[in-house]
Write the structure tokens for this entry.
Amino acid sequence: MSTFPREEMEEMVRRWLEANQRAERDGNWRPMADLFAADAYYCWDIPSGLYEACGREVIRQTCLGDAMDPYQGWTYPYEKVVIDERRGEAMGIWWQVPPTRPRRADGSEIKVIGASWFEYAGNFGPGSATSTTSARPWR
């Protein structure tokens, strides 16, 4: 468990959300890998267990590449991000929204909630990097 300045973590979250919006707009999630530490661990649940990837470049190719390529046009807007600077962690709640934006009979939008937990690696300081490619915060 590491402690980081609140402002530093807020800036990293801002960069993450900006990269997420850029990926939605461009239909290319691979550049988001630049925000992960070289030795990052990424996983999610699948019916047969866990889908796991270790290392920034593996994450770029698999998790943010092969796994996301079929989802062109989908958006993943964040609802909320909670930062715990004492632990160096952030939790994000987001929605999976298909491009067709389907509706229920009552007119409400059909979307699926998701969540991501991040551990901050501490490789970024406010003012020390001006682009997301030079910040590598997520472990």
User: Anything to note?
Assistant: Confidence is low (pLDDT under 50) at residues 126-137. The longest strand covers residues 89-96. The beta strands are 41-46, 49-54, 78-84, 89-96, 112-119.
